[in-house]
Structures
1.
Amino acid sequence: MKQQIHVAFLGAILTVGLSVGASLVQAQGSDEPEPVWAYAWSTQPDPGDTYVPQLPPVREVLPGEDAEEITQMRQVEGSSATYSRMEVRDNHNVIDWFPGDHPPMPDIIQHGPASLVAERGRGCGSCHLPNGKGRPENAPPAGQPIAYTIQQLQDMRDGLRYTVDPRKPNTHTMIALAKAMTDEEMRESAEYFAAIPWTPWMRVIEADLIPEMHLEPGNMYITVGTEPTEPLAGRIVETPEDEHQANFLRNPRSGWVVYVPVGSLDKGEDLVTTGAGKTIQCGICHGPDLMGLANIPGIAGRSPSYMMRQLYDMKRGTRAGLSAQLMQPVIANLTVDDMTAIVAYLASVKPPTPAPTDAQ
């Protein structure tokens, strides 16, 4: 009942706020090129493009691999745990370098849906990490409202949430996992991630030039250069602070560098805090600290690649659930440049420091 009242209240706010001018409900920029950087591509999708399915989790030495190297036990700073590369990449048995950073992982987080045991389905913590902070190619569910996370899983299950870019492989993986989850597993995962406070783990830098990057298509940017020689050219680029820690060892404490266009932080702040004559203030629905309200998600300090995908997907109609319907008039008058500035600024907003808990 409370959720229904809250949604009705938000609907009233949006109706009043957006009736200020008819231009605010007329979609603009619908013919703009896809912001392919947010989907980890460098080219626009072509008709007929599709995705390459992700390989299922494995826990064995694969042909051509060095058995000694792949089974060698490894460590990360600050952790007493040891894991081999074979264990690190086994997404059906999620490793946990820092179990004190979060509540105990239930089966759905560590091993995936019970219905996919035979297929060795992925545990939620394999992609979103045990601390729920996620990575640029997926969602950061830590600290999000329980009702919101459940609704997103249901939307994926019911065909109401997918991706504009047909080449993005993990969206299809996530939809398959949502379809395999029971209602109880959805709630269990939502409650787990909601119990983990959202804390900063990226640093945002305005730049015209950035170090040379290698783009893993559909995945992420990896820094390969040392000097700023590559034009940022209107993109946002998220790259690991330490690629070995982030990818090779899956260290959930290893953060990210976010390069954003020069001037985007000021422009984004204006759009977020005042609407800049194009939209309404984000804080009306997402809370004055942008950390979320009721079943509305937090957006402060989150991955700008992820947030850009959601804004663009909603604008294009590939997110059509209840929350997306509420957002569509809000973003109707925003261009891709506007949305880029918004997510750049939001990524720079530092979430408030949470009170210590037993899990920290």
Note: The longest strand covers residues 220-231.
2.
Amino acid sequence: MIELMKKDKIHTLITAVFTVAVIMIVGSLIVLSWNNHKLQRQKAAEIAEKQEAQLEAEREQAALEAELKEKTRDAEIEALKQQILDLQTKAAINAKVPVASSSSNDQLANLVKKWSPRVAHIECHWYDSKGSLSGRANGSATIVYFTGTGIRAVTSKHILFDIRGNNPKDCKVELLSGSVYTVLVNDANVMLSRSEDWAYLTLPSDTTLTNLTREKLNICKNVNVGDSLVVLGYPKIGSKSGLTVTEGIVSGIDDVYYITSAKIDKGNSGGAAFLVKDACYLGIPTASVVGTIESLGRILKASFVIGN
């Protein structure tokens, strides 16, 4: 009987040990399975995060490429427009210096011949942070020697100063003779008016420009309403293929401006106006309405811009 009881206790103990072992093994498997599941979820989250970051980078790159293409297309369109204007001008202009009026007055012809070499075409360029062309301004300029400061291109402020208040990176100044000067624009070689539409761009003092500006500009002093004048410049209708000359009269005087009946287009801005009777420098033409040539324009007085 005692022997039988011992066997039952041993059997019970073995059963208990076996049960505990099974429970421990099952528990370990459950914990391992949970850890594996948790690790898989973490890996899946990391993969999803990386994929999202990659997609975001691809979207940003696509947006930048689209923006670059848009800016490039705009620059190409502007270049094509300029080419069309140049072709139209070449077809319409047979002389190097076309005079818009039919006047055969020798005094007028001599004035144009004398001063037209000093009126230049100016083109300024703006670039974005990637170096792509982002803006362009065209106009006219008058080459003037200033005692003590050198040779400058006198032009309109809006050609050297965009609507965001930025100067261009560079400007190309082309004379009627074909000489071209490319100037990198900086604070040292640009001067802008705070109140009126005029500006200076300093040019190199080489032999060509020194000879061109040897004779001092005669600033007009005796100006009356009704006096005849001529405007020299490179308007859109004339483009940069040839200087255009238009005639008119002094229609009125408004503070630092002369009002004129002469046809002035946007590209005439920064050019030169001369009084016929004295062959004197009247000032800087300014279009009263952008792109319009039939309305009364204004001429900023030369005495206000460069003094006497």
Note: The helical segments are 2-92, 106-115, 207-212, 302-305.
3.
Amino acid sequence: MVLFVAGILGGAVNAVAGGGSFVAFPALLFVGVPPIPANATNCFSLWVGTSASGGAYRNRFSLSRRVMVPLVLTSVIGGLLGAFLLLKTPAHTFMRVLPWLMLGATLLFACGKKLTRRRPSGLAHDASTAALVGASVFEFIVAIYGGYFGGGVGIMNLAMLATLGMTDIHAMNALKVLLGGVINGVAVVAFIAQGAIYWPQGIVMTVGAIVGGYFAAHYAQKLPQAWIRAFVLLVGTGMTVYFFLKAY
């Protein structure tokens, strides 16, 4: 029951803002799953839930292939690299850097409109080469982090999209769901290949994540964009504080 409820909440938070791992991952630890398998199992369960929420955002995708291809490719490469790092290296050093990454991502999201006021097109229409390169580099770094741990990867992607000119929070969430699904999907393949997933616990959490992910994405689109932005900032701030307390 704990894992099912955690899956619902994690899937719902991921669909709207990102950060569902901060519900799902501790729940897996609580029921006795070791840290590395808990991370892999959490990644699998929320990946399925995120994919379910993508169905609710299917009418929000409007970017050109020229924009999508480099972002998806960097997500694949970075996600695989991050998963490899998780399986082969200790997490201590990365966990000390993580709160600073989350702080930067949350501030970027908060200031995104001001930073792009003079170039409102950004990625929302015909992206310049400079915008594409910047987005791809940012996405590669985010994808490495997402494959390694993944908590807050949605916030980071929303921050990148905000600073590069996207202003429609629902369209941003749609692209965030797609990129997050790619990152976690390739990481899941690596985790399955290494036998790192605890399947009984993962299946229970996955069912909850599907329910929470789809319905949260569907109903979030009926809310004012200002409310969703405020929720994203609340989640980002909470995750930043959590990681600072955990690391220091």
Note: The CA atoms of residues 52 and 214 lie 5 Å apart.
4.
Amino acid sequence: MIQIQKTCAIDRNSVDGASNRYFPRLLWFVMVIVATHYVHLFWPIGCFCFSPLVWIWRSPLASHSVMRSSSEALVLGFAVGWISTGFVSDAIADWGYIVQAIACLVFGLHFVAITVSIHFVRHWPILIAAVATTIAATASELFQAWLGITWSVKNLALITVTTPIAQWASVVTPFGVSGILYFINFLLASGDSDRPQIRWVGPITAAFVTAVVWGGGVVLASSVVTSPCPFSVMLVQSHLKDARGVPWRPWVALDRLTRYSLGEQGTVDLIVWPEAALSNSNYSGDAEETNDSTNRMTIQQFSKDLQPVYGTNCLVGVPMIKEVSKQQYGLEVQSPSFFNCGCLVSGRTQRFYHEKQVLVPLKEYEPDFIQLPWIRRWLPQSLQLTSPFTPGGRFQTLPFVDLSGQRRAIAVCVCYESYFPWLPQYNTDSSVDAIVHILYDGNSVDHPQLLQHQIDACRFRAIETRKWNLVCSTWTGTAIIDPTGKIVKQLPPVAGVLRTDM
């Protein structure tokens, strides 16, 4: 009899062992398929629920090997990132898949951080474990945001931008909103106790926290005074993209759209053209220079020929070149540097510049480690940047006087800067009247969800600062966003103009 019981016990363990090996993997595959199915609607972190991970790695039936759990989490995170980041490989035609793989690997490390945290607190009560895992997950998100590599596809808070939960960003920042979401996810896994009051304490607490946060967001939004934008703006969208072998002359279409709108609807306080709207220009260029405006339009030419015709303030995107002192071989030498700028033109000689401070890795600058000689020898020629941009060294608001004689000021963000809430553009104590984002999105024509994701980031910047945010894009998505993060107006993918006074 004793021998029979022993045999049965061995058989039961064998069955449990098979369950340990196969069931978690089957569940993961199902979740990846679901993520793939919804990727055209949501970003990976939005359609992925972390609560199954808590259930899997806290379950007594699951393997408790931290190495095995980490490796599987890395693969899962890599796969979920890969199915939604095709724009990375498309942006770099020859070696884009390598860059995409590196980005997805970094993305997968976030899953590893969460998994390791769950592993070490798996025996703790669910409430305490949820707090510890939330801290680890939020810290991991902060670290990856600091790296700047996967920020544009990874912030958990962005999926709540259409809900009252997003309003908490004005109090606890977007990372605090992410922390709230992590906490709710990590509570949703029920405990393994036989006592129902203990087993369901996590899900019940998660439901309570969700209700409180949702209701609090409604209160926060209702307390915001959404007065009209303090000045009138015209945002001009050319609906063009830069193509190889085709001259890049967006100012031709932008000028035509601007003149038509001014003639039909009248003048405004500020006209905005998107990123890279003009040709490369020198800071020290002659204001009276004359060139063929069909093939080249510098900021000096714009100030001389176009701004006086428009008769109002103009913000335009333009790459600027200036001589910068650098230390080389112990000597101070002058070398040309490129700055991706937004330039406010108020007259033929009155110009104010915002130099982009946060550049896109590989697309606009070479990270320091790539400049090592042995790495540069290994890199393919297609990744050798010949004229990388230089990040701006200081931030300044851009002032202008509106048509009524009132002094105004705007903070400018160029493209990638929309994703980083800690930049000085988003200082809540700033006296700026609005925040203006100028974008070039010609690289994401086949990935419209990427630009919409960036507009969602701009909506969060509006919530955090409680200021009007104006988005001027090249291809699609030009939008006007009020201080509650609501999109008041948005252009479809067409050539057109969006105005605040209409």
Note: Residues 360-391 form one domain.
